[in-house]
Specification:
alpha/beta, Carbamate kinase, 11-stranded mixed sheet, 8 helices, 13 strands, about 35% helix, globular, disordered C terminus
Length: about 260
């Protein structure tokens, strides 16, 4: 059962993270791939440099001056810290980024509005397959190769978008978005068990699902359209509890 898991920045602070990933890896060795974010750490670094983080539709506005900062934080400190945690737990993790072997090939979304933020155009999964076949767990930073540049430029790809594209390229059985909440909540705070496309659009339009959660719902449907069999949004416990969280379905239907 091939699984792609996207771990958000806040979920990375959970003390049980390494144990949960280790349990998921032992259950499905050579069939797990992790994409990580690190938005809070990027924002903290921007603030330390006197910059202000700006978001549009849950995606970070990225200036050209932010690109090296992104490399340093996402592909450097966040990626290697997570690798260290997992290796200490006995997981053979290897940290890479979307730049390595041009794994994530992206194009700009809207240079005027979002700057150097990109959307995956093509995934080259050979490096992922090579690592998995050799018994290693790929841990991927979503800094991407810029397809429009003839000099090897980079783009900041939202981690949810990257995970959806990678899951589609691997024909994953499941894409799991690990967030800091148990699942998608309705206006009363109740966890919604299942969401179909029409209802997801309503949640976004009403503002019930906004920011990062809206981006996850959008990425979920991209993944389903790309051939991923199942998509869930859950907290860290969803790594080992396959029924936890909110499932996003492709077909229109009745909400559970």
């Amino acid at each position: 059962m091939m699984r792609v898991v996207k771990i958000g920045g806040r979920a990375q602070a959970a003390p049980e993270l390494a144990r949960a990933v280790a349990a998921a890896w032992r259950e499905n060795p050579k069939a797990l791939c992790i994409v990580h974010g690190g938005g809070d750490e990027i924002t903290a670094m921007q603030n330390a440099l006197g910059k202000e983080a700006t978001f549009v539709g849950g995606r970070r506005v990225t200036s050209q001056g932010d690109l090296e900062l992104l490399r340093m934080v996402l592909s450097g400190s966040v990626n290697k810290r997570l690798v260290n945690l997992l290796v200490a737990e006995g997981v053979p993790a290897v940290g890479i980024s979307g730049e390595d072997s041009a794994l994530i090939r992206a194009e700009s979304i809207d240079r005027q509005t979002l700057g150097f933020a990109g959307r995956p155009k093509r995934i080259e999964p050979r490096l992922i397959h090579t690592l998995l076949d050799a018994g290693f767990l790929p841990l991927i930073s979503p800094v991407a190769y810029d397809l429009s540049s003839d000099q090897g430029g980079i783009l900041n790809v939202n981690g949810d978008d990257a995970a959806a594209a990678i899951a589609s390229s691997l024909r994953a059985d499941e894409l799991l978005f690990v967030a800091d909440v148990e699942g998608v909540q309705d206006e009363s705070g109740r966890i919604i068990a299942t969401i179909e496309p029409g209802f997801a659009r309503d949640l976004i339009a009403q503002g019930t699902a906004s920011g990062g959660m809206a981006a996850k719902l959008e990425s979920a449907h991209v993944a389903l359209a790309g051939g991923v069999k199942r998509v869930r949004i859950s907290d860290l416990a969803g790594l080992t509890d396959m029924e936890r969280g909110t499932s996003i379905t492709q077909a229109e239907g009745v909400l559970s």
